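Anyone up for a design puzzle?
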């Protein structure tokens, strides 16, 4: 067996980016020829000029998806046949894992090790899981009056518009594409302007894998232009979105102003990571706390951005977290040793540093970091940052920072912990660390969040749904529940006598 190649810098020169939209099985420029630049956050250099899709391009993609859906080239296949084709798609993606990993490292700054070992495998696993589910779904025959036969069936909705963010560009796309395609829908995918290259290559690989033309279309472009056109399109049946609350609200307005398409939102979070003094292994919890705010540069909807520590152990515990965060290697995402790459762009970096300033001004104490790092690279790197003495009312405890900035708060008992944990508009995820079964169950029950981890963080697999409560959204990705988003329930009532 040959050793895996890790000469990522050399391999950059071998990369050929796909920069044109994927519409109806063809690679096409924007109808008006417009392009936008993708600058790499690792060094501030131009990576590629990408087709900037506009209203006409989105319309062409939706029409292609509609035609593909209506003629049954995809929806009309036996589910087992869709399964086979989606498994082939997953295989082709896996065959191009290095290329895709390198592309996302370059375009959005994810450390190559995480891109190669977490992000791309997550996409492959997701595609396979939903492919395998395609021919295992069953519908219902409820027990009704014997004079009738009632059937409750699920049908694909038709055309799905998927708008995704840049922080996990392939995983998020996979969470939408897997169930949407397995259920028989056709899709128009709008990637974030920061991560169009991996999505376009994915669209091209789908064609190489033999997905019929028009089944998966990818239109890159700017949110307010391409994203808005998709959101307002009269022939899109379902919009599925992962991103910020502000844009989520726009999508609801687009729906209201157009065709009342269903809108599923996976939005931001402000995860409370709640550590009780009786946590089974405080050292491990501290390492996870540091990982939870530095993994993916803190650019994670579930980032463990609020650390709630029981007062008796706070000093010692926070000391361990600071040590662990300090030891993270911030660096070039193409270096295998890098644990924290650059934040996604200059705007994001200024936003994150603005929150550091807000924390200082509010009176929180900076225990680590707080500055831009590696300034001579031309990239947008931020030091892992820890604030202690944070009050729940401060902006750094309330707003999603989306960078490696941790806010540490203290609590006295379970009631206090739950009150602070729930003192947020978000409800995406939470972690609870305790040895006590009752504390664990009560905290898990009382914290309002779509996912609660006990004595772990960021665990799970495809069998469990993922999504938010409160302003973290209304949709659920992953698991068989994801099919609810991409299917319509139909009742057929047959009178027999
Ligand atoms: P974002 O700014 O909301 O953008 C998300 C997507 O929406 C992008 O494709 C964006 O395109 C598009 N968009 C922007 N303005 C639009 C408009 N007016 N109409 C239609 N589409 C528009 O979010 P982001 O910065 O990419 O991602 C970070 C956010 O995603 C964070 O809030 C994070 O918590 C959230 N997130 C949530 C989950 C979850 O599962 N709950 C997972 C990951 C991330 P452009 O890039 O061209 O602006
Ligand atoms: Mg954006």
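Challenge accepted. My sequence:
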């Amino acid at each position: 067996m040959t050793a895996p190649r890790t000469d990522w810098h050399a391999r950059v020169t071998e990369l050929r980016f796909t920069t044109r939209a994927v519409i109806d099985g063809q690679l096409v420029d924007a109808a008006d020829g417009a392009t936008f630049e993708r600058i790499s956050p690792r060094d501030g250099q131009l990576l590629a000029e990408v087709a900037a899709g506009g209203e006409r391009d989105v319309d062409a993609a939706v029409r292609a998806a509609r035609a593909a859906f209506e003629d049954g080239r995809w929806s009309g296949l036996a589910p087992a046949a869709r399964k086979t084709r989606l498994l082939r798609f997953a295989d082709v993606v896996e065959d191009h894992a290095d290329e895709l990993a390198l592309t996302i490292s370059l375009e959005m700054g994810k450390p190559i090790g995480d891109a190669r070992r977490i992000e791309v495998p997550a996409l492959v696993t997701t595609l396979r899981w939903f492919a395998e589910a395609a021919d295992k779904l069953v519908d219902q025959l409820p027990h009704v009056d014997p004079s009738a036969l009632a059937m409750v069936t699920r049908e694909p909705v038709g055309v799905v518009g998927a708008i995704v963010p840049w922080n996990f560009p392939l995983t998020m796309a996979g969470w939408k594409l897997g169930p949407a395609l397995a259920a028989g829908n056709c899709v128009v995918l709008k990637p974030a302007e920061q991560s169009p290259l991996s999505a376009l290559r994915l669209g091209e690989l789908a064609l190489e894998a033999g997905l019929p033309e028009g089944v998966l279309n990818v239109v890159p472009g700017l949110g307010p232009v391409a994203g808005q056109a998709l959101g307002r399109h009269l022939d899109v049946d379902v919009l599925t979105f992962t991103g910020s609350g502000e844009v989520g609200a726009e999508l609801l307005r687009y729906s209201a102003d157009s065709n009342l398409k269903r809108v599923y939102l996976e939005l931001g979070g402000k995860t409370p990571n709640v550590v009780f003094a009786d946590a089974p292994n405080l050292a491990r919890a501290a390492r996870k706390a540091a990982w939870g705010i530095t993994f993916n540069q803190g650019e994670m909807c579930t980032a463990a951005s609020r650390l709630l520590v029981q007062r008796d152990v706070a000093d010692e515990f926070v000391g361990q977290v600071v040590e662990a965060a300090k030891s993270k290697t911030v660096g070039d995402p193409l270096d295998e040793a890098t644990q924290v790459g650059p934040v996604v762009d200059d705007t994001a970096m200024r936003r994150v540093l603005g929150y550091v300033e807000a924390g200082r001004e509010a009176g929180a104490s900076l225990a680590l970091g707080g500055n831009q790092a590696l300034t001579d690279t031309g990239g947008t790197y931020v030091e892992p940052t820890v604030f202690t003495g944070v009050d729940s009312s401060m902006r750094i405890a309330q707003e999603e920072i989306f960078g490696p900035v941790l806010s540490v708060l203290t609590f006295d008992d379970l009631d206090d912990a739950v009150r602070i944990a729930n003192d947020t508009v978000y409800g995406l995820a939470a972690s609870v660390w305790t040895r006590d079964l009752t504390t664990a169950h009560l905290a898990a029950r009382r914290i309002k969040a779509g996912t609660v981890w006990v004595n772990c963080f960021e665990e799970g697999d495809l069998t469990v749904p993922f999504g938010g409560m409160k302003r973290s959204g209304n949709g659920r990705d992953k698991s068989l529940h994801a099919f609810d988003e991409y299917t319509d329930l139909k009742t057929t009532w047959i009178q027999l006598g």
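A detail worth pointing out: The pocket of NAP (ligand 1) is lined by residues 163-168, 172, 190, 192-194, 222-224, 227-228, 231, 242-244, 247, 250, 266-269, 301, 400, 402, 428, 468, 473 (CB under 6 Å).
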